[in-house]
Amino acid sequence: MRGLTHRAVDRAAGVPEGSTSYYFRTREALLAALLDHLAALSTAEIETVRSEDLDAVAGLIEHWATVGRDRMIARFELTLEAARRPHLRDALEQLGGRFRSMAEDLLATMNVPDHKRRAANLVAHVDGLLFDQIAGAGSVRSRDDLRDALIPLFAAATADQEL
């Protein structure tokens, strides 16, 4: 995260020096904008698989862990940075609400009881699975292995009764 500066963004974007700081006056604003941009990209990708199709969800996680790996690393680094920056933490909580809301909508359409709480748990578990794919000590799982890992997560999220 230290390498993300207004000047670095200006150079990477090929715009005159000072352009980025015109739109994002502070580092906090720049980080929040990056977080928002990453969330918008992920939201668009999630929209393509908004169903209980575990193959599609596994494919999305596989995509994020391979093609989108750098973006997911940036997302997780921003998440850790938010633990130290209250302003960024607020932005992260707001954006995380988007993902939980999408999961809530999915579980509600499936008539899952207590869908809000279960959606929050489902998102946390899928995030953990993705984090393990990106930074875990084991080897990267195949799409089939990811699907197998998702089965108990979705089963728990959609079960009629609590254990």
From TrEMBL:
One Pfam family cited in the UniProt record for this chain: TetR_C_31
UniProt GO molecular function: DNA binding
Annotated ranges, domain HTH tetR-type: 1-42
Cross-referenced InterPro entries: Homeodomain-like_sf, HTH_TetR, Tet_transcr_reg_TetR-rel_C_sf, TetR_C_31
DNA-binding region ranges: 5-24
UniProt KW Phosphoprotein keyword: no
Keywords, sorted A to Z: DNA-binding
UniProt name for this protein: HTH tetR-type domain-containing protein
Organism listed in the record: Kibdelosporangium phytohabitans
